[in-house]
Amino acid sequence: GRTTPHHHPQTAKKQQITANNALLEMVDKTVILVRHGQSGFNLGMDKFFELHPELVGRNDYWKAERMFDPMEFDSLLTARGEEQARSLRDQVKQWQAELVVVSPLTRALQTWQLAFADHMHVPVWVTPLVREQRFSSSDFGRHPDLVAAQFPHVADQLRALPAQWWEGPTAEELRAAGIIDDVHREGVPALRARLQQLVEALRARPEKRIVVVCHSVVMNQLTGAWANNCEGVAWDLSVGLAPCICTGLACVCTKGRRRLKKRTCRSCSSSSQCSRRSSRHELAADAGREERRERK
Question: What's this model's pTM, rounded to 2 decimal places?
Fold first, then answer.
């Protein structure tokens, strides 16, 4: 029978070569993820846990409805955070970045500005794709015009953003509510969908050496690792997102009725059949949740 152009052997071979070349380009790219310096939110949480050491390492703390929040909206860098950012300058020289991708949250912009003070000629892309997961007060941004006034080098990009580019309520609305709960937060499925857009955008760009100044939960979702303030982590762009935390879920079953039940990941909402038969399941995650207090 006739072979359609789509299935022609030579056409298929060309398509395979194109796909292989695209993969090689991704492998050749060097992407460094950098967490921002210490913020006022980080400092506030550190002081809280010093007063309440019994809460350190509690896996359920960040799920508590009345968890402590310093209410540091769009938190700024502390003096220590500024010094941490300056200390990156030697590494910046070694990275030889062709592009810097920066979160519009102020602490990330400050970190970029201080770390790249001697390399302001490097093109910058400010994008909400790398903003922190909207969870605590520090993750809710400010109107782009207010932020643009502090960062004239990228003012045009900031002013071009939507008024509420963090896609959530304003600080004023949250202060009036007196609480930040799951209604205001960004779920992991939405976060991972946003980061997949980042993966695709960076793969499509021509630059080979890219630095991304972002946040701890973002870095964890991309690499599977937790980073300290101003710590740089290499990210394999060809791999994309790290496996969801659900890969670390263990189904602890009790003896009971002999029928299969599903287990559901509390992070990404995916589900799979348990390999054991039981009447009840308890899901346990091992991905270092005690380190979640270091987030933001």
Answer: 0.76
